[in-house]
Amino acid sequence: MRVVFMGTPNFAVPSLSEILAAGHEVVRVYTQPPRPAGRGNKLTKSPVHVLAEIMGIPVETPEKFRMSKVIDGLEELDADVACVVAYGQILPERALRAPTYGCLNLHASLLPRWRGAAPVQRAIMAGDQQTACQIMQMDKGLDTGDILLSEMVDIEGDDTAGILFDRLSRIGAGMWPRTLAALERGGLVPSPQQGEPVYAEKITKDEARIDWNRPAVELDCHIRGLNPFPGAWCELGGKRVKIHFARAEAGKGHPGTALDDKLLIACGEGALRITDIQAPGKPKMSAEDFLRGHAVPTGTVFD
Asked: pLDDT digit of tens for each residue in the chain (303 aa)?
């Protein structure tokens, strides 16, 4: 099939690879424009952009897809279908109609739960035990289209957002060859989404702050859902520290207070044993390494 691929981050790279490996002709890739990155703020191409150039695929990086000339270019490709994976732009209706079979989107949640920008993080933060990879037919709504193919995925108790992102990326990528083969032979059966929609809003920095009044089991999910980015944080001695991983344990005390000298912190219910922490300007390190240079005696308060 003549395929247009739209995607930007590392999450989308395996999908483009699988579509190419299945023998489809990717006639153009659309991705976000190069953005400043790193200490030097050097303009950096997206991971999808890099792979597309390696594979010799023409790349377009429109700042705004709704511009008429951008959609004109899409229509002129005479593509069979557009495959969309974490592109980062909302497509106008005219763009959705441009390919013969429209635009299909890979979404990392069990729709209609966690529509929107941060479905993987929100699922872990909410304590969900399952999520999904779903390919849907895009329409004018936000992740409201009919489901074409779905695979359930368990969320393990030690999954971080980064770990789950990687697993969902691989699973979702493997769904594209099956979806396109079924589309080619007319074998896709659309299924309307069922249930009450829940929206996965973008994560804010203030929201990432740890509220020690919450139960330890909730904070465990909160911390894992924000790992690796933007990272759950609190203050210790007036300085912001990131907590990358912790586990719930038994314990009782005033919320935010160290119950021993090995980073067991009291919560509103139970306690959290911090196992991975990051001081300002330092790399992530184990609790043992951190404590070698930062004594945290019993009674220390985390804000």
From this structure: 999 999 999 999 999 999 999 999 999 999 999 999 988 889 999 999 999 999 999 999 999 999 999 999 999 999 999 999 999 999 999 999 999 999 999 999 999 999 999 999 999 999 999 999 999 999 999 999 999 999 999 999 999 999 999 999 999 999 999 999 999 999 999 999 999 999 999 998 889 999 999 999 999 999 999 999 999 999 999 999 999 999 999 999 999 999 999 999 999 999 999 999 999 999 999 999 999 999 999 999 999
Domains in the chain, number? 2
What is the crossing angle of helices 161-184 and 13-21, to 10°?
Answer: 30
Cα distances from 234 to residues 149, 158, 277, 281, in angstroms, run 41, 21, 11, 15
Residue 269: domain span? 216-293
- Within a domain: 161: yes
Q: CA-CA distance, 72 to 63, in Å (whole number)?
A: 15
Measured between alpha carbons, how far is residue 288 from residues 1, 262, 274, 282, 294 in Å?
Answer: 54, 8, 10, 15, 10
Q: Are 117 and 89 in contact (CB under 8 A)?
A: no
**pTM for this structure?**
0.95
Record the tokens describing residue 47, joined without a space.
Answer: 């991971």
